[in-house]
Amino acid sequence: MSTPMFDPESGAGAPLADKPIEILHVDDEPAFGELCAEFLELESDRLTVDTATSAVEGLEYVADERPDCIVSDYDMPGMDGLEFLEAVRKRYTELPFILFTGKGSEEIASEAISAGVTDYLQKSRGQDQYRILRNRIRNSVANYRSRQRVRMFRSAVEHSGHSIYITDTDGVIEYVNPSFTDITGYTAEEAVGRTPEILKSGEHGAEFYDDLWETILGGDVWENEIINRRKSGELYVADQTIAPILVGDSEPEKFVAVNQEITDRKTYQLALQRQCENLGALNRMLRYRIRDDLQAVTGYAELLENHVDDNGTEYLRTLEEHAWDVFDQIDAAQSFTDLLHRTDADDPMELQRVLQNAVRNVGSIGENVTVTVDETVSSIPIADEAVLRSIVRILVKNAVRYRSGPSEIRVSATDRDQTLAIEVRADGRAELDGTVDRQSTETVQSLNIPGVDGSERHILQGLTDSYGGEIRIADDRADGFGFTVQLPVDRLLSESVRSS
Questions:
Q1: Which residue range(s) make up the domain with 198?
Q2: What is the per-residue pLDDT across 32-64, written as a single tens digit (0 to 9) for each?
Q3: Last residue of a domain, one of 226, 261, 296
């Protein structure tokens, strides 16, 4: 069962037993005032007492310090206890005020009650009077604080921008706030005594409301989006939370419903969704058209190789290389787009096969280039092979493009400390125009070098960032030129493996 809502009357959430009480005791006899303060503080370490010897001094203190309770004598020179009470009530209508006087009569008590005294106690002999006074103080302050909390919560509800209503356990509305009227069109007089069925839109089936009632009658909080109908007949959407009001461990006594209207937000979301779908359709159409055109370009380039001299063949090779670049960037961009749209991942694929798919046909870009995948690669199942394949393919392609002379490109992977490291390394020298420090390793994102152009760098950064990883580049004199991709294993695993 969920935690019950805060009940202002019970004081839940801010225990009074733990909160100090500051008292002002006004009596024209300083000795008695000090004695009373000592006994009150001795009776309870929650009570702290300050003293004043006249009503005028007491008014000054109240204006500066605002105590939790005033205890005052009646018979004092200059201004008596009743006059003091009337002066306090002009500014603080409910501040606890206890008349603690040695002069008692029904007439004084009646005047004190008429003036708004909180309690009346006649002085007596012995220590019992201080215990009684302490109890009167604690009860008066507890009631005062409870009333303050009720007013505070009521004010918060009244000024809330959300529609709030309270019902009994049969669903009969007992209270609505002004925002309820603003949103639904029903006034408090029209809503109180009826049920929330006045808002029913007909857009939800019986199961929807059965779940609602089963949840809240069981003492739990129910949260869901709901489509309601205003008094005007217009539909609106709200985020609705209904919670039981519990007192102790008893059954729910009432229910409070808080509704945040989200009609505009839902309308915007639907419009944005339609726009994304339209852009996606346009993207697919353009991508397929570009692919078709590129197929024609590469096909005719191959046919022309038998009809041109060596210089022409070199030009055709360059043309084919750039065509394959565009193919790869289309694939990578699509992977990134799918990731942004949070599309469902394909069936899991072993890492070895993902890497083999990534290097397929890449070697045809350059002469005397061999691309191999290490057979010892981990066989972990990859949840979204298209993303990882796009990352590796771009890096392999760039390693091929910017090697110097005949080269072998090796792709390997190691799984260590929950991190998958995929290395793409060329054994030849890379033509990087001296931009990279030969003795250092830097992230691809921080480099502005041939090998990873601007568009590819953005795609790589987006794909790797989405998995919480990074790509690093190194140009080592002994081992050659290469890239390393580091990705958290748990972000790559299929859901079935992750949950096992």
A1: 160-261
A2: 888 888 888 886 678 889 999 999 999 999 998
A3: 261
Number of neighbours of residue 17 by Cβ within 10 angstroms: 8
Q: Is the pTM of this model over 0.85?
A: no
At residue 422, φ and ψ (nearest 5 deg) are -110, 125
Alpha-carbon Rg for the chain, nearest whole angstrom, is 40
- Which of residues 325, 342, 359 is at a domain's end? 342
Q: What would the two tokens of residue 482 be?
A: 């290469």
Please give the tally of structural domains in the chain.
4
Give residue-wise pLDDT tens across range 389-444.
Answer: 878 887 887 777 665 556 788 888 888 888 888 888 877 555 544 444 433 444 44
Specify the DSSP element, H or E, that contains 11.
none
Nearest Cα to 361, choosing from 314, 310, 420, 321?
Answer: 321
Range 404-409, long-range pairs (CB < 8 A, 24+ positions): 404/428, 404/429, 404/430, 404/431, 405/368, 405/429, 406/368, 406/369, 407/366, 407/368, 407/369, 407/370, 407/480, 408/369, 408/370, 408/371, 408/372, 409/359, 409/362, 409/363, 409/369, 409/370, 409/371, 409/372
What's the confidence (pLDDT) of residue 351? 83
- Tell me which DSSP letter residue 348 carries: P
CB contact at 8 A, 204 and 224: no
Cα 60 to chain center, whole Å?
Answer: 48
The residue-averaged pLDDT of 349-359 equals 83
Instruction: Give the SS3 label for residue 272.
Output: helix
Is residue 180 domain-resident? Answer: yes
Look up residue 78 and give its amino acid: G
Asked if residue 5 lies in contact with residue 246, where contact means CB atoms within 8 angstroms, the answer is yes
Inter-axis angle of helices 55-65 and 81-91, nearest 10: 20
